[in-house]
Amino acid sequence: MRLFQINLLFAGGWCALFGTFDLSTFVWGFLLAFAALSLSSPMYGQTAYFKRVLLAARLGGYFLYELTVSGVQVAWDVITPAHRSRPGIVAVPLDLEEPMQITVLANLISLTPGSLSLDVSPDGKTLYVHEMFVDDPDETRTRIKTGFERLVREAMQ
């Protein structure tokens, strides 16, 4: 059985132990099981599971940060009388090659307020993104490539 499945099984067991099947109990069970499995990692030999979980958590944390910052920025632009938005469409060249990685990247961008993934070029090398605040297209490209794209690549390699 793979470590992720064992971790999920332990998290489910944690929920059953308390008789509460809600998200917070499951997350705590997952974290405790992750800690227990990482302490016993020498029994499993060389595995990338622990690194991948931490990279996925890092991607999730970065997404929450971007969600908060862009949500405040969009809300501020909506409630103030002077609108500072400069919408534009930016073509972002992709280093990602796997369709699942491109899909995750496009969805994370679309879930962030003020931005929307429009399309991927037929060859899969360019992602077209509509941004609400495009002062400099190169800055927007760089922000996406060094932020979401890099973290998606690291978490899903």
In terms of topology, how is this protein built?
Layout: H1 3-18, H2 23-39, H3 49-79, E1 88-93, H4 99-111, E2 115-120, E3 126-131, H5 137-156
Antiparallel strand pairs: 1-3, 2-3
Helix pairs in contact: 1-2, 3-5, 4-5
Outline the structure in words.
There is one protein chain. The chain is mainly α and 157 residues long. The chain is 62% helix and 11% strand. It is built from 5 helices and 3 strands. The protein has helices spanning 3-18, 23-39, 49-79, 99-111, 137-156; strands at 88-93, 115-120, 126-131. The chain has a 3-stranded antiparallel beta sheet with strand order 1-3-2, with helices on one face. Helix 1 (3-18) crosses helix 2 (23-39). The relative contact order is 0.13. The model has no long low-confidence stretch (mean pLDDT 92).
Supply database-style keywords.
globular; 157 residues; mainly alpha; three-stranded antiparallel beta sheet; 5 helices
Question: What's this entry about, in short?
Answer:
This protein has 157 residues and is mainly α.
Name the overall outline: globular
Any idea what the radius of gyration is? 19 Å
Strand order in space, largest sheet:
1-3-2
Structural class: mainly alpha
Approximate strand percentage: 5-15%
